[in-house]
Amino acid sequence: MIGAPTSKSNPTSGPSFRLGDERLIKVTASAAKKVSSLLTRQGRPQGVLRVAVIGGGCSGLQYKMDLQDAPANRDILVESGGIKVVVDPKSALYVTGSELDYLDALQDGGFKVKNPNAATSCSCGESFSA
Question: Hey, what domains does the chain have and what are their CATH numbers?
């Protein structure tokens, strides 16, 4: 079990989400620094990074990342590297054990996900199959 619900089912209490840990997803110091910088620039320093897996890409599945104000209903919240990451339950099946890194480089720079669940990945490094 990843965690217990943190909110009651009372509709006025806000979204109900679970707490997870770095066994779900871990964020490197470099990625945490970049996410924190982006959240601050957007005026939401207490925001979260959403990591999702969606259909598409050259290998069948691809990562989608987005900055948001707070977790949504049923999300799993992980604090790693000093930032908050949220993952929906369906995406959690694909990202468990992954590490999010950020490479500040002209070529092959940007966010990279090291996913032990990926059976194959493409050369672009942004899509995979499980």
Answer: 16-129 (2.60.300.12)
